[in-house]
């Protein structure tokens, strides 16, 4: 089911990302603020992990390695082992969140269900008038932003997401239609 759902799920724009997180944190009439869910979505959008893997995170999973931090996880969906550097700013963000909420090193950072996050996100997106957005939109936004910021290096994004091929990654972030449109735009030669 996730594979078919993801094809319909859009990647966020940066503006949508900011608006959703801000609205989730501030709340609105009929919807209380929810820092926990906002923080989980921020991590998904900044680490590129699936929400199921974000929900398994514990502070002790982020390990100091010399002058940097690393995270080792086994992805729930694929069973693949993944080790990567966590930017210092993200590590500090997580640490501050845990301190504010008295989360111990061995505790789950987000003791909440994926369904609860999807439900809250749906409420916020309805309020903002956004369609086709789910938690997976945050991972797609991450992939798209990394792709654009790194010279459109599809192989880099493929490795980050642990996809089996560049073609899978291209479909995942919707590159093909963008490339076709760009090629048509570049070719235009009006006289």
From TrEMBL:
SUPFAM superfamilies: DNA breaking-rejoining enzymes. InterPro entries: DNA_brk_join_enz, Integrase-like_cat_sf, Integrase_catalytic, Tyrosine_recombinase_XerCD. One of its GO terms (molecular function) is DNA binding. This is Tyrosine-type recombinase/integrase. The keyword Nuclease does not apply. Residues 7-185 form the Tyr recombinase domain. One of its GO terms (biological process) is DNA integration. Keywords: DNA recombination. It holds the Pfam family Phage_integrase.
